Amino acid sequence: MSETATRAPAPATLSRGRLLAWLGVTTAALLASVVVTVAIGPAGLTPSDVGQVVATRLGLGDLLGLATPDRLDDGIVWQLRLPRVLTAAAVGAGLAVCGVVMQSLTRNPLADPYLLGLSSGASLGAVSVLVLGWLAVLPVAAFVGAAAALVATLALATAAGRGAGGLSPGRTVLAGLAVSQLAAAATSFVIFWSARGDQYREILSWMLGSVAGAQWSSVLITGGAVLVLGTLLASTGSVLDAFTFGDTAAATLGVPVAAVRWVLLIGVALLTGALVSQSGAIGFVGLILPHAVRTITGARHRALLPLSMLCGATFLMWADTLARTVFTPRELPVGIVTAAIGAPVFAVLLWKGKARA
Amino acid sequence: MTQISEHTTGQSLTGPARTDGRAADGAGGAGLAAERVRWSVGGRLILDDVDVTAPPGALTGLVGPNGTGKSSLLRLVAGVERPDGGRVSLVARPGAPGEAGDSEDLLAMARRRRARTLAFVEQDAASELPVTVFDAVLLGRTPHRSVLAGPTEDDNALARAALERAGAGDLAAREVSTLSGGERQRVHMARALAQQPRVLLLDEPTNHLDVAAQLATMRLVGELAADGVTVLAALHDLSLAAATCDHVVVLAPEPAGRVVAAGPVEEVLVPEVIDPTYGVRTTVLRHPRTGRPVLTFDEV
């Protein structure tokens, strides 16, 4: 580091009061976004129509003295849009928290949840069953592919590190890269060799990531994974803080470094695997959200983790709303929208962060 | 936490764990003893039955040519790596002749308890993250609170006091990556101080520092030692060791790291020890003001 480093203003370190205020604001934005994004679309629903359907479905209709909602409205809100919006929220929250954990564990600002080869492994699994036409087992195949990629990555990283420090961040990143590339090659081969006709479209849509067609089962899987694993990951703020200056510093602060690394990597992998099995590999959320939220919270993980989850959820709900409305009646895979928003945002963050780097 | 007040907190950092009621982890100075420590990596022996003692309340320098395992020894003592054999203990009270003293096995100690006992400032610890100086120092409080709990007001006060003690109070709101080498070293020392350790391990604390920053760092280390902290510092600069250390341990490289001499500076940093170890010709002069040894070297 140079002695003449720019004296940029210090990043905000959030006080407890301001953190609570941010959590309140982002939670309110999240809840409001659910109602508003469900209402947006061709059927011309209003947020109050949405509220009416949801309240009635939750058995609060009589209590609140609401009229019975229109059957068509009920179908659109409860069967089509709400599962999709909630799945988008869960996937966004999960990817964001996984991104924070991966960036901290590897101390690599470019890390994202897919770093361990998870998305490539999931793609290989998904594409293999897509070309066979076995759509029913697609989520399972994607999850198995992600899990296999994780095992391969960790096995390679551990084997390479045997007797030389074990599972180091650098080796984990490189092993993930190797596994990703191999899985991507295998995926390309499968597509090239076997895909026919409109399968290409389906495959591309899956590989770019999409929550179109999400059902309540998707909400259950992604939401459940986020509630259990996401909450667990989000509670590790103090531990991740201890990794700020590396593994040695963490160890001398009393952190069981190797155990923490394994537990967190496996937690990230299971959560990402569950998300990817439902939505495909939606890019940029896990990379960008942590960086964007860090401009508010600074590096403190106790603030960064929960805020990233809330912002990730809201972000992906709106990205998916854009994906299904901008070119109505055609839909875009939401992965295109997250990339289209994410890349410029990343460029701006890079530009603004210039003074500090 | 952007406002860091100037007032002192009334909490003591200088005598780590002396007066703050944390008697469980600190009751006066304790020496450090590494006995027959042996370590190898990938079949190569790095340290061969190394014995090092660092008496309480003194600055002990660990010197030796490159590759003698100085850093490795510190990492083993800090519990970052596990030795293949040997013992590292905290000696609260050396045994009088014919009597067992009080000593505690540091390697068997629970991680968090060890982190409240011993702090380690490694070489060139850096971070990619936009972490502020104050937050970096606050990390030193990690082993003193529950894993799920956030920092308390006490933690904040102790971190502030540690920053002041390390002469870095004015840096609190800065981002660590924008600091100069000397400033960063002070921040890492403050982080170690916030751990309230009885033993402080330093790996090349003056590396990459200009001469004024070197002196400031060693003055702080000397003050901490005078306050009762046991300090073991790996130093590559023999002249600096001669000017600042109370005791010196010399490691030699062949065939693997082993101790060739240990004791007070005056007895150890002499041509008979240095010349064969480093392959140089040493002349020992006297500092006209301090009377301490001043070393100069010639090629053989």
Briefly say what this structure is.
Chain A: It is found in: Cell membrane. The complex is a heterodimer of chains A (357) and B (300). Chain A is mainly α.
Count of all domains of chain B: 1
CATH superfamily caption of chain A: ABC transporter involved in vitamin B12 uptake, BtuC
End-to-end CA span of chain A:
10 Å
Largest sheet of chain A: none
The level of helicity of chain B is 25-40%
Structural class of chain A: mainly alpha
Strand content of chain A: under 5%
Which chain pair has the greatest contact? A-B, 42 and 50 residues
Organism (chain A): Isoptericola sediminis
Protein name (chain A): Iron chelate uptake ABC transporter family permease subunit
Transmembrane segments (chain A): 20-40, 82-102, 114-135, 141-161, 173-195, 215-235, 242-264, 270-291, 303-320, 332-351
Family (chain A): Belongs to the binding-protein-dependent transport system permease family. FecCD subfamily.
Overall description:
The complex is a heterodimer of chains A (357) and B (300). Chain A has helices spanning 16-39, 47-57, 61-64, 71-106, 118-132, 138-161, 169-194, 199-208, 216-234, 237-242, 247-252, 257-279, 285-297, 301-325, 334-352. Chain A is an all-alpha fold and 357 residues long. Chain A has a single domain (33-355), classed as ABC transporter involved in vitamin B12 uptake, BtuC (Orthogonal Bundle), CATH 1.10.3470. In chain A, α5 runs antiparallel to α6 and α14 crosses α15 (334-352). The termini of chain A are close together. Chain B is an alpha/beta fold. Chain B contains 9 helices and 12 strands. Chain B has helices spanning 70-77, 111-117, 133-138, 153-165, 181-194, 211-226, 238-244, 265-268, 271-278, and strands at 31-41, 44-54, 59-63, 85-93, 102-105, 118-121, 199-203, 230-234, 247-252, 258-264, 280-286, 293-299. Chain B starts with 30 loop residues before the first strand and ends with a strand. Mean pLDDT of chain B is 86; it is low at 1-12 and 14-27. Chains A and B meet through α10 and α11 of A and α2, β6, α3 and α5 of B.
